[in-house]
Amino acid sequence: MKLQMGADEARSLLDAQLRGELPDERGRFGPFGGRYVPETLVPAFERLEDGVRQFLHDPDFQEQFQRELREWVGRPTALTFAPQLSERWGTEVWLKREDLAHTGAHKINNAIGQALLAKRLGARRVIAETGAGQHGVASAAACARVGLPCSVYMGAVDIERQAPNVDRMHRLGAEVVAVETGDKTLRAAIDEALRMWVTDPSGIYYLLGSAVGAHPYPYLVRELQSVIGAEARQQMIEQAGALPDAAFACVGGGSNAIGLFYPLLGDDIELIGVEAGGTGDGLGENAATLATGTPGVLQGSYTVILQDEDGQVQETHSISAGLDYSGVGPEHAFLQAAGRVKYISATDDEALEALEELCEAEGILTALETSHAFAAAREWSRENPGKRVLIGNSGRGDKDMPTLTKYPARIRTYAGA
Amino acid sequence: MPAHERLTAAIVAANDNNRPALVPFITAGYPEPGEFINTLRAIAEVGDVIEIGIPFSDPMADGMTIQRSSYIALQDGVSLEWIFGELEMASVFGTPLVMMSYLNPLLAFGYQRLAERARATGVCAFIVPDLPFEECAELRAALENEGLGLIQLVTPATPRDRLEMLCEASRGFVYAVTVTGVTGGNSGLPDDLADYLDGVSAVSDLPVCAGFGIREAADVVNVGAHASGAIVGSALVEVLEEGRNPKAFLQHLGGK
Ligand SMILES: Cc1ncc(COP(=O)(O)O)c(C=O)c1O
After folding, report:
1. What residues contact B202, with CB distance under 8 A and at least 6 apart?
2. Distance, in angstroms, between A259 CA and closest chain B CA?
3. Ligand 1, closest atom to CA A130?
4. Number of CB pairs < 8 Å for A and B?
């Protein structure tokens, strides 16, 4: 059963959100969010919440964070006009280039922000989970940068399909712990990281990689990722001379999407999140949580999840490790219920096709996660010719080579030959 | 008398016999769904209170043993609905039952229905490891309406003022987690266990049962000197896993 939200309730909650009042003091976005964690972790979450309140908007911390974003991450990232795609799709296409950020994806914005916070909170070591390996690499790099030891939990299935990133994490000095339990992908990696955290709640800082989990993570990650949308908004005005009609981002846990969307919520822009449609509509064939899931509690948060009627969380399938997750951040569940953001899905095949098209048209090898956003934007463009679209290009696709080599590039003749 | 007071009474009765209450935990329907009720009957002869684990797909507070047993039980089709059905057919147990479940299966079942079915099947209270006090009002109210309790957990990481709040809120008994860690650890009980348990017992009006990492008769004696009861989970599940006799194992640990 989907959670229905009355029009009045939705409007008043959306107003509260535009005033920056969500999440509320209990970590809720309307009905979604909260903090469902084992008792052992409650004091750790309270310390984290206090730390976030104390430091996140502290001028000293912000100065340090902004300097790292500028000088180490390489921000602002470019906004790129895509002339070939625009021509083919019949819309004006702009790309926010998070693939150009250090380590190759938006994940670094969050990782360096939280690593700086971990340092201020006096953590002895950092743990992180990873799906695609991008958050693992970003965490490894950020921990090296601030001088903290880092262990990354990664599902055995993902270790295989994202092998280049495993090697990168090792070289950046992180320990990579293979997770052989559960579904051996992102969800199992989060479960295992939580189990490790419980063994030393005061010494360990858990650097969570998406806008998911118990409060304050969804808030913290959104704040750290909002630089994406804030920059893009400004750049659209400067370079395109206007805001986009629609903005697209892929949604795994939802961090790049909330980072792009949050600063655009007050504008008249159609916001579209794109989940993994996998190989089909059946249970277990996709990771289209918002499209087909129901409300429940997973990994600390009341949100929309893929579950059976007994409340058992279902396994997922996606060609992209970063979208292969049975839950989604609670703020997205709220934005869907309130009708502000639309969530759709793209299949494995559509994502692969979009990836190829972007390579060929613009010379950009994008991540398999990101490709889902391109597939949906292309579809939308067909129905909305002449409009202007912004796509969050969340990361680069180098990490996906082990998967991509299984799908040989379609042979094409060089147009000029 | 509300059902959760039966729990308290069973623990006090064991203590009156000069021994700590023994609280065996099993994953429902593991290793053989067909043996569930027989296993319950066998351990009910030795245990003072029985804790039934509801299998869940994401047991984030559990170590390998209970993860494995949950996974297999789920594969075998064990669900809350099935468990209640089995308990109904077996009719009410003399030994009071407690259910331990992560929150999501309870949410999916519906709190009102849950409380009614639980009451009808001799379940006196729930332990929900991913439901901290701040989020528990709704479930707690639904359970208490039927005379059932929500047992609160405290841990070595729980600060003093919070400890008081949790002991006050708990029903039946207070569950003192012995270690900062997940279930099934076998690195032994911590050195400062006695002080910790004495501290919890001093604050709590209810009996305190200690759980996590209790594997041997010596552990039960050790814990029993500073708490009213000992909860034995992973070690018992391992006995079931290996096809050994659960009743004999519990007798060896010092049950009734
Ligand atoms: C490039 C890229 N995009 C998107 C995602 C999905 O995560 P999120 O939904 O948190 O942005 C990932 C996750 O690994 C990723 O690597």
Report:
1. none
2. 28
3. 14
4. 110
Nearest to A54 by CA among A116, A12, A10, A130: A116
- Same domain assignment for residues A179 and A205: yes
Catalytic-labelled residue, pool B5, B45, B58, B62: B62
Continuous H helices in A264-400: 289-292, 330-337, 348-362, 368-383
Residue A297 has pLDDT above 70, yes or no: yes
Total number of domains constituting chain A: 2
Decide if pLDDT at A416 tops 70.
no
Burial (CB < 10 A; 0-12, 13-18, 19+), residue A1, is: exposed
Question: Cα–Cα–Cα angle for B45, B48, B49, nearest 5°?
Answer: 110
Residue with tokens 């009720």: B37
Report the DSSP pairing between strands A150-155 and A175-179: parallel
Query: From CA A348, how far away is CA A98, in angstroms rounded?
Result: 22
For A270, residues 6+ apart whose C-beta sits below 8 A from its C-beta are: A245, A246, A247, A342
Pick from A309, A364, A326: which is nearest to A95 by CA? A364
B78 touching chain A per CB within 8 A = no
Give Cα separations from A248 to A261, A289, B172, B197 (angstroms).
Answer: 9, 17, 52, 54
In order of A14, A30, A249, A256, B18, the CA distances from A33 in angstroms are 15, 8, 21, 18, 47
Q: Let me know whether A395 and A362 are in one domain.
A: yes
Answer whether B125's CB lies under 8 Å from B98's CB. yes
pLDDT, one tens digit per residue, over A147-172 is 999 999 999 999 998 999 999 999 99
Domain assignment of residue A415, yes or no? no
Which of 1.20.58.220, 3.20.20.70, 3.20.20.140, 3.30.230.80 would CATH assign to domain B4-247?
3.20.20.70
**Residue B158, phi then psi, degrees to nearest 5:** -75, 120
Name which of A26, A198, A298 is nearest B61 (Cβ-Cβ): A198
Does residue A33 contact residue A331 with C-beta atoms inside 8 Å?
Answer: yes
Q: How confident is the model at residue A415 (pLDDT cuts 50, 70, 90)?
A: very low
Q: Is the ipTM of this complex over 0.95?
A: yes
DSSP class of A287: B
Residue of A5, A32, A30 whose CA lies nearest to A303 = A32
Residue B242's pLDDT band, with cuts at 50, 70 and 90, is very high
* Residue A47 shares a structural domain with residue A147: yes
**Average pLDDT of span A313-338:** 96
Mean pLDDT of chain A: 95
Q: What is the pTM of this model?
A: 0.97
Residues A202 and A254 in one domain: no
Predicted local distance difference test score (pLDDT) of residue B188: 84
**Amino acid identity at A155:** G
Q: What is residue A320's DSSP assignment?
A: S
Measured in angstroms, the CA of A111 and the nearest CA of chain B are apart by 23
Range of the domain at A203: 35-70+107-221
Q: What is the pLDDT of residue A243?
A: 98
Together in a domain, A256 and A358 = yes
Q: Identify the CATH number of the domain in which residue A337 sits.
A: 3.40.50.1100
Compute the half-sphere exposure of residue A98: CA atoms within 13 Å on the CB side of its CA: 32
Query: Of B104, B134, B177, which is closest to A40 when you measure between CB atoms?
Result: B177
The residue among A184, A206, A221 that closes a domain is: A221
Say yes or no: CB of residue A316 within 6 Å of ligand 1: no
Asked if A47 and A178 sit in the same domain, the reply is yes
Q: Pick the closest to residue B225 from B7, B12, B18 (CA basis).
A: B18
